[in-house]
Amino acid sequence: MRKIIGSVCLLLAFCAPQQLSSRQQQQQPVPPRLGMPQPDDPDSGVPPRIQKDMEKKANEQRQAELKRDTDKLLRLSTELKEYVDKSNSNILSVDVIKKAEEIEKLAHNVKTRMRGSN
pTM for this structure? Predict the structure, then answer.
């Protein structure tokens, strides 16, 4: 349990809004998604300007999803801490374990999105 809480704390420190905004500036371009036409593909028929707009919108959507998920991570970890504080040393609630599993899954999704893949 402490390992999960420690992992969540590390992830939240990593995802702090100040650090997230500085990382946005340092990020490399988003890798192309499957099915999206590429500007250097002569068969795509999509002008480079429109392609850039599509990439920009996809990146903005990814950033909005990251913000939403990191906000949810913060809320869930706060709830987990409250559950742990209320429990005694001999009993852990099933809710605590479910909450920790939900945090772990969401943290994995955030990490994957930060790497630029879905």
Answer: 0.55
